[in-house]
Write a structure and sequence with these properties.
This protein has about 675 residues and is α+β, with helices and mostly antiparallel strands. Helices cover about 60% and strands about 10% of the residues. It has helices at about 1-5, 20-30, 40-50, 60-70, 75-85, 95-100, 105-110, 145-155, 170-205, 210-230, 235-245, 250-260, 270-290, 300-325, 345-360, 380-390, 410-425, 445-455, 460-470, 510-520, 530-565, 565-590, 595-615, 625-640, 650-670; strands spanning about 10-15, 35-40, 120, 125, 130-135, 165-170, 400-405, 435, 495, 500-505, 525-530. The strands form two sheets. Strands 1, 2, 3, 4, 5 and 6 form a six-stranded antiparallel β-sheet that branches. The longest helix has about 35 residues, at about 170-205. The two termini are about 60 Å apart. The relative contact order is 0.11.
């Protein structure tokens, strides 16, 4: 069903003169021929008619069946004669000889239509005054190369004055989405990169830290990518985006390495790595434990994120500890040491303000798992789609009825019971329309009933009389032998599996009647795809929170083993405070809490833990350098990820907003973990 929707293109063409519209439509079909096939309703009906012709005595429209059941066979005869005699009616002599009552044409004419004003003219499908062109793409709608070729071909055909053209399709949204993402990535990426470079230049005044940072980041990304491909064979896009972002922690490692030598003329790379070894090692182990918890989630994206992040962080850590001492021969720097006076007093003030803000935000806090919120649809394309939906009644069928039974005939009979009830729901305006296999392929039980009615009420002398009106004589067995149509091979778009059918619903405005209908039958279920995906996102949001909580517990146990109960609790209180406060403070700015916010909190936990560890481990003499490194790390992280809050794409915006607030809080509270004149020993 997804393939059908994403590969479909709908274009409406309208002009004052039909010939003008027809000429433009013809040019459009030729222009798009290399990329898409035109799907004409009339051709479909003709093809279906040929396949159903030998079963014509079994197929009765609802009107014809009602007349025959009420012993009004004369009305069927009059209806057929009117069609035959009409100058605009059927003129196919062969059809009239084989089906003099025109039962099959009447049956096909009663099929579900796009809308009541659907018609054909000169071989073109029309809805009202619009020519409707429905294309099936020959390439993949979300393939960037195919998108570019298709859009170029479409735009090369200029729309003349006086012609109105409306279009919709996933290929248009996909192309615009890629364009938007590229523009945002270019802008935000350029600002982030420039900002990080400026930070390095301002505080270190040489290119060395930049090159070292690039080395740590590159090794982390390559390591994470290699391990993921080794274990999974391919890489989930979210794993690469999220995982590569987590490797940004490697920049923090480099900042702490460079800042350790502040004010020490005798500082060298070996001393610097020795000084940061303990907090850096504990930080990597703690962060890795937290991320590995994600690998337990039954969701491939989360599993790959966990492996990518863990492998990447370990590789970056090994680069700093093992490679830096071999290639970096520089001494320490002293720039801006005195400008950093951030201490516990300021942290306490900010902590108090944050708690008050969170209390206020708690009144506004709300979750939102609606998948439709994640769509950042261009307004112009959305407006065209809405116009097309209003004109045609076409829908993407995100809601369906799932019907199943022991065999195909059970399912068809169940559908036949559902059809009049669905018609009542449609009459109330709760749905625009519905399509089911039983509307075109009756059950064998109903086919036998139809054939018995035809034999009883239309054949024999009544058929001779009917034929005499059109100047024909009867031959034996005009309606052929008793053959019964089996649904196998017909209408595969309505069959999900043997004995499992779907009924497509369009224009659903109220689901109450559908829910009641589905609950009446054991073998009928209402499937709301958008609702199901939203519920799944809600489950993963809750699961992400539980995983973060479990990660905190595991990290705390590790810290207790190395720092003792009191110190471990003090260190972990900083990142946990940031994780807890961030969603409520974000609510003040109108942000809802989603799965993507929860995922971003994992990054807040990992980076916030590093800030707290380095602050705790720093001696009074090293504290200033540690806070400079923390500040540079926070600034670079905010520029790299916080700027994503500017994105128009909701999921990316949510991720960026959470990072922006969470990292700011984690940095501001980090001094609370520092203890003056302490002696840190491994807990035995």
């Amino acid at each position: 069903m997804k393939e059908e929707v994403t590969q479909r293109i709908v274009i409406l063409v309208k002009a004052k003169e039909f010939e003008t519209a027809k000429s433009y439509a013809n040019e459009l079909v030729k222009q798009l021929a290399p990329f898409a096939d035109l799907n004409k309703q009339q051709e479909q009906v003709e093809g279906l008619g040929k396949n159903l012709f030998k079963y014509r005595a079994n197929l009765l429209s609802n009107q014809d069946r009602a007349w025959l059941e009420n012993e009004q066979a004369a009305k069927v005869s009059k209806r057929a004669l009117a069609q035959i005699m009409s100058p605009f009616g059927l003129s196919d002599a062969k059809l009239i000889k084989e089906d003099p009552y025109l039962l099959l044409p009447a049956y096909l004419a009663s099929r579900p239509k796009l809308k009541k004003n659907f018609k054909t003219q000169d071989g073109w499908d029309l809805i009202g005054e619009h020519i409707i062109l429905i294309f099936n793409l020959k390439g993949q709608a979300f393939n960037q190369s195919f998108q570019e070729d298709f859009i170029t071909a479409y735009e090369n055909l200029k729309t003349p004055n006086g012609i109105e053209v409306l279009k919709t399709g996933a290929v248009f949204y996909g192309q615009r989405g890629i364009e938007q993402a590229q523009n945002e990535a270019t802008l935000i990426g350029a600002i982030s990169l420039l900002g990080i470079i400026l930070l390095n230049i301002i505080f270190f005044r040489n290119i060395r830290p930049i090159l070292l940072s690039l080395l740590a980041i590159s090794s982390g990304i390559i390591g994470g990518l290699g391990v993921c491909l080794l274990l999974f064979g391919k890489l989930h896009l979210m794993a690469f985006i999220f995982g590569a972002g987590l490797i940004g922690i490697a920049v923090d490692y480099t900042f702490h390495y460079c800042c350790d030598g502040l004010g020490e003329e005798k500082s060298n790379s070996v001393l610097r790595t020795q000084n940061i070894a303990r907090p850096l090692t504990f930080g990597v182990i703690s962060s890795s434990l937290g991320f590995l918890i994600l690998a337990t989630a039954p969701f491939p994206g989360l599993q790959q994120i966990a492996i990518f992040a863990t492998a990447g962080l370990i590789m970056s850590y090994l680069t700093v500890m093992c490679i830096y001492p071999l290639i970096d021969k520089s001494k320490g720097v002293m720039h801006f040491k005195r400008l950093w006076g951030f201490d516990r007093n300021w942290s306490l003030i900010i902590a108090g303000i944050s708690v008050l803000g969170a209390l206020g935000g708690a009144m506004l806090f709300h979750t939102d798992d609606d998948v439709r919120r994640l769509q950042s649809l261009p307004l112009d394309l959305k407006a065209e789609e809405d116009q097309i939906r209003n004109i045609t009644g076409l829908d993407n069928a995100t809601r369906i009825l799932l019907v199943h039974g022991e065999n195909e005939q059970d399912v068809l009979q169940l559908e036949e019971n559902l059809l009049p009830k669905l018609a009542n729901i449609q009459g109330k305006g709760d749905i625009i329309g519905f399509q089911a296999m039983a509307q075109l392929i009756p059950s064998i039980k109903k086919q036998k009933e139809n054939r018995d009615l035809v034999q009883k009420t239309l054949l024999g002398e009544k058929l001779d009389k009917h034929l005499s009106h059109i100047g024909m004589t009867r031959k034996n067995d005009i309606y052929g032998e008793a053959l019964y149509l089996d649904p196998e091979g017909f209408l595969p778009e309505f069959r999900l599996a043997p004995s499992v059918h779907i009924i497509r619903l369009s224009g659903v405005t109220n689901t109450e009647g559908l829910i009641d209908l589905a609950s009446t039958y054991e073998n009928v279920r209402l499937v709301d795809q958008a609702k199901n995906i939203s519920e799944t996102l809600g489950k993963y949001r809750k699961r992400a929170i539980l995983l973060i909580a479990f990660s905190c517990l595991l990290i705390w146990a590790f810290l207790v083993r190395n720092y003792g109960f009191k110190n471990a609790s003090l260190i972990l209180s900083v990142p946990i405070s940031a994780v807890v406060l961030t969603p409520f403070i974000a609510s003040i700015f109108g942000e809802s809490f989603t799965f993507f916010n929860a995922m971003a909190l994992l990054l807040v936990l990992a980076i916030g833990l590093d800030y707290a560890l380095f602050s705790f481990e720093a001696s009074s003499e090293k504290y200033s350098g540690a806070m400079i490194a923390n500040g540079l790390s926070a600034a670079s992280t905010i520029m790299a990820f916080g700027l994503l809050a500017l994105s128009d794409m909701y999921a990316i915006h949510a991720f960026g907003m959470t990072i922006l607030i969470g990292i700011s809080i984690a940095y501001a509270l980090a001094p609370l973990s520092h203890m003056k004149n302490k002696k840190v020993k491994s807990h035995e």
